[in-house]
Amino acid sequence: MKSLKITFGLIGLAILASNIVTMSRWNEARGVYDDICYLRQAHLFQRFGIGGLDTNAALDDDGYFESKLKEIGFSGWKEPGRWPCHTPMPGDKMVLQYPPGTGALLALFPARHQAVPLYVGASLIVSALALLGILAARTLPLTVGAGSFGALAIYLMINPAKASYSIAPTMAVCAAAGFLTAWWLLRARQSLWPIMLVGLLLGLSVNFRLPNALLAAGYFLFLGILFVQSRRLITFAQGLGFSVAFLVGTAPTLIAQAINAGSPLATTYGSADVVAPAFSLTVLGQYLRDMQFVLIVLAIGATAWLLRTGEGGVRQVALVAAGNLLVNLVFFLSHPVFTPYYVVPIAMLTLWSTAFAALMQPMEASEAAPLRHGAASIGALSP
To answer: Per-residue pLDDT tens for 28-68?
Structure first.
């Protein structure tokens, strides 16, 4: 067992080292609109501090974004009305469509050397949690599972995470939230701080990508149904604590929307992104041919397995994951736009949560809950 853990640990570290070498060669001017738009947000924060939340194109009086557009050969660099990933707003303003979190993280690093440290930092967090999972494994199957998943999670920081700067920090948040979810339901069920930390992390993730708000759906469903069934004070407090922490985490985006769109609840995204759900065989086919389909299958399989065999807190983790998967997959599979990373966050949050739930369960599963395969309700499973 010890030698196997060391082997998997070395494999994970080797993948991490390979990733860092690859990342160190990345060019921030690779021609992707999203990249330079996130870098513009970072530049605004570096120039104006908190005032960088205002992304009005008129603030580009130093020509920063124009120079970035010229670097990638964009013909309309002189015309703010044609700038990519900018949306017209009342008052003849053109503002960035993205929430401010990714730019804020990029702003921590010096100009022209921002993407690489962002990815390296996120990869270190993911790798640390992967190694923790390997160390926590107490049986041969769990060691193999933790080692294999850890290697996959570290590799994914290159592909598909490289497709968007927003995915790297999202992946790190999903790993940490998955660990805390399992810790809360298996080790600290009566505590407030773990679920509040999960709420804060998921709220912060909204600042990287607005659709990350859906990552909290399963938690709201679980806590809401649990309170309706149990009517316990601790359940109410946990639901309230999660909600408040989630709201606090999303505050930067709400403030940015108020500044740029005129209301905290008004989106800065254009009409092409705000579309009604519509299932499309074309989009479904693209997911079936993409690596995301493998992650979806793994996430569904892990959740189904824990629902069937899990007890107590393990089963509760699976219930949270199931609700989350349902809401997120319905949304993204009915969204008429496909990208190579849309469902990666929910798949990874699910896999991290279920993996740590399996690792944290008692050696004797029969001691965790009196019912193993019964059709117990959420309320019946609460301590």
So the answer is: 878 889 999 999 999 999 999 999 999 999 999 999 999 99
Distance CA 171, CA 122 (A): 7
Can you give the length of the chain in residues?
383
- CA distances 139 to 9, 161, 299, Å, are 16, 31, 21
The CA distance from 44 to 46, in Å, is: 5
Q: Coil, strand, or helix at residue 88? A: strand
Q: DSSP class of residue 363?
A: S
Distance CA 175, CA 345 (A): 10
Give me the amino acid identity at 35: D
Between CA 18 and CA 12 the distance in angstroms is 10
For residue 108, what is the DSSP state?
T
How far is Cα 97 from Cα 270, in angstroms, rounded to an integer? 7
List, in sequence order, the alpha helices (H) in 276-311. Answer: 281-288, 291-309
- The torsion angle over the Cα atoms of residues 163, 166, 169 and 172, rounded to 10 degrees, is -60
Q: Radius of gyration (Cα) for the chain, nearest Å?
A: 22
Residue 226 is encoded by which pair of tokens?
Answer: 């649990």
Partners of residue 353 on adjacent β-strands: none
- As a 3-state breakdown, the chain gives helix, strand, coil percent values, each rounded to 5, of 70, 0, 30
pTM for the model stands at 0.92
Q: Does an H or E element contain 96, and which?
A: strand 93-96
